[in-house]
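Anyone? Bumping this.
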Amino acid sequence: MATKQILAPSLLFTLFAYITIPWMSFDGIHLLMFHFEKHRFEFFFMAFESSTHQLIYTIVTLFIGLILTLNFTLSRFFCGFYCPSALASIIHLKFKNPFVLFIVIFTLAFLLAFSTIAYFTPAYKLLSHYTEFGLGAIFVGILATLFTSIFLLFRGWYCSILCPYFFVSAILPQEGKQTFAFKEKENCIDCHKCVKICPVDDLDIKNGFDMRCVQCGLCEVACEDVMMKHSQKHSLISKKLEKITIFNSFSKHGYIWGIITFIIMIIMIYFILDSGFLDNCYLNNKGLYR
Amino acid sequence: MNKLLKIIFLGFVFLGAVFAAPLSLNGIPGTQQNKINIVAFVTSWCPPCKITTHYLTKLANQNSQISVSLLFVDEPMQISSDNNLHINTITLQEARKYGVNKSIPYILIFDTSGKAIKKYHTFNPTLISRLINNLKNGLYENGTLPQDERIDLWQQNRF
């Protein structure tokens, strides 16, 4: 049971989608791209001419809208099930050699950084930035360094202090959404494995509800490993609410709020990308108007 | 010798500026002497160009002192010549000589003496209307009087 939570398939699926989407293009138009160079917003192989301002406002709206929507619907489940930071926590478990760990974490960070920048400039062009010392390559380098430091060093400290996703989830009611709980306190042998393995500093699940919990489920597995050698043959930490799944994590009305914010976000993006806000048109976008 | 080298070096640096032809009305079709000339490089497909065309057509019909020349870049267009409004076509290569680079509309504004005083790479109705109002009232493009009409206190030995 416990191994199910570790390496949730959703983690690999989102990583795979995030990395492959920038490479998907048809007739030079991508699945999703904020094409600053050619002044267009590309979505689902359709392109809309938009100025730099419009693109920046679209990105900001998408960022805020997605954070709100995901917080209302998935809440902290996002952190354990979709955030690449959880994938890094699992890598920490698998590789003990610090050199190998660094190489693997850096590869993951570089892939993520490259894919992030590839949403703003075509991926195949970004490759050529490395030979020309282009600006895109520098941005990838900066992002890769940031991701590496977060995955390797800051980990749960980042998640509970700096992450913008946590800013929103911290002000929303959380108590009913936390699933992992320490159920059998009387059988505990005080090995503190669950505290040591937790990516968040000084988080003791024995004390009950803690808002900083990222739902990664590492403590459940750690406890099971210890308990297999003892009388108990199952983990003392388990899911508090069996019925609450990833698709039903917030309160009953949470989904309605999530859908409302998502619709508002789409309407706002539609409003921002209106061609009436254009100051001028670029001659390379002539084909979009036929 | 040193001075000469400096002059030659500066000559190389400003070579483009020295031999650059000044923007003049002569080559542009449909412009008129002794009028405020507005030359707009537009296309029929671009939304801001449509607004520009609409605005300038209205402007030309309302003002007799203004001559508007609409040049459609790389498009077959029916050439027409009204009293103040002239519609013409121009190839992209030809348009590049006047400063069309990557984007469209591109608007040039000449004063009554035929001097190019402003170029816009975007369409902004408030800026254009303010500029044209100043020009119609015989002012500079920024709203000041011409130099010979200015009454500067320091010139009259008031202090």
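Late reply, but here is one note on the structure posted above: The two ends of chain A are 57 Å apart (CA to CA).
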